């Protein structure tokens, strides 16, 4: 795969701090109309906007759901965040950059994982494949599926100059604000060029955490080895840290308390705070372990479609509101 044609880039006259710096003013891709055939929107796909956390008028925003540790519920959050944002009256694109393709399978698009056209074709210079050729529609939102060739895409990003900008230039920027209000990216569960490209493309991240030392250690590595270095070049905001798949383990209270007292406490949404331990009307803090999450994934639908009475939907709505306003601290 060759790099996208750099002659199509917009440029700016801002001074770059050093060679290799990313400039948010001149890395945009080609114009929207030249790259995307907008998917068919003739059929309404959204339900009425929730009244618990009313939709806010904000600028379009992209967000990655990421942690460099597998098994933390990253894909579950990405799918259901996309659905809740759509349910609130937004046009949403879910981008699956995880080589395992779990989000793609979890929204009922397993066959797309081995399709003839895919994300890599959009990135390849000289290939006439457009985003409109690759994007699929579901009942609630649109999806840019993962593909079995994503490892080759990552190798191309690794070998190209500024390859980490490809996802931003060719995928996110051409559609954000034109075709979609929000772009949600399910990131790879490891350090690497594709994971870096995900964070650089969105400049916002939601971090899912299981209440275990391996999960917390994975976040610490991500913060020092990935978020920190990227922040030296561009803005990258942590929108929320989400304790996930909680089931009443004795470690929950200690780890959430430690998080609240740390520099990361400001990123915990209200539903994730330790006050819920003492609230008799609360099931406890965070996103609780519910069998409906797994069953919904197996059925290829979001939680709201599988179990519209789930007690976790209000919490996912709160997370969607965090994304709309650009962070927990802006509440």
TrEMBL record:
It comes from the Archaea. Transmembrane segments: none annotated. Residues 62-233 form the AAA domain. Pfam families: AAA_31 (PF13614). This is Cobyrinic acid ac-diamide synthase. It comes from Natronolimnohabitans innermongolicus JCM 12255.
């Amino acid at each position: 795969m060759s790099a996208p044609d750099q002659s199509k880039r917009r440029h700016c006259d801002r001074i770059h701090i050093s060679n290799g710096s990313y400039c948010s003013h001149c890395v945009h891709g080609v114009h929207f109309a030249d790259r995307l055939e907008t998917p068919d929107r003739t059929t309404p796909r959204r339900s009425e906007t929730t009244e618990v956390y009313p939709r806010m008028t904000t600028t379009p925003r992209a967000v990655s759901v990421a942690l460099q540790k597998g098994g933390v519920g990253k894909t579950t959050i990405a799918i259901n965040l996309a659905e809740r944002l759509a349910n609130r009256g937004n046009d949403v694109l879910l981008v699956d950059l995880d080589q395992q393709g779990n989000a793609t399978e979890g929204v009922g698009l397993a066959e797309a994982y081995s399709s003839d056209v895919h994300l890599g074709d959009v990135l390849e210079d000289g290939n006439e494949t457009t985003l409109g050729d690759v994007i699929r529609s579901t009942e609630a939102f649109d999806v840019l599926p993962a593909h079995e060739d994503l490892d080759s895409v990552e190798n191309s990003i690794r070998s190209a100059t500024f390859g980490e900008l490809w996802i931003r230039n060719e995928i996110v920027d051409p559609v954000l604000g034109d075709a979609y209000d929000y772009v949600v990216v399910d990131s790879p569960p490891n350090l690497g060029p594709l994971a870096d490209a995900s964070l650089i493309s969105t400049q916002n991240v939601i971090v899912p955490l299981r209440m275990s030392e391996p999960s917390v250690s994975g976040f610490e590595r991500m913060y020092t080895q990935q978020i920190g270095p990227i922040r030296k070049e561009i803005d990258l905001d942590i929108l929320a840290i989400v304790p996930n798949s909680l089931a009443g383990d004795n470690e929950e209270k200690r780890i959430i308390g430690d998080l609240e007292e740390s520099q990361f406490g400001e990123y915990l949404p209200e539903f994730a705070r330790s006050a819920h331990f003492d609230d008799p009307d609360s099931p406890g803090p965070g996103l609780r372990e519910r069998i409906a999450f797994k069953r919904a994934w197996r059925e290829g639908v979001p939680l709201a479609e599988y179990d519209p009475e789930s007690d976790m939907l209000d919490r996912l709505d709160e997370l969607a509101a965090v994304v709309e306003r650009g962070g927990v601290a802006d509440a």
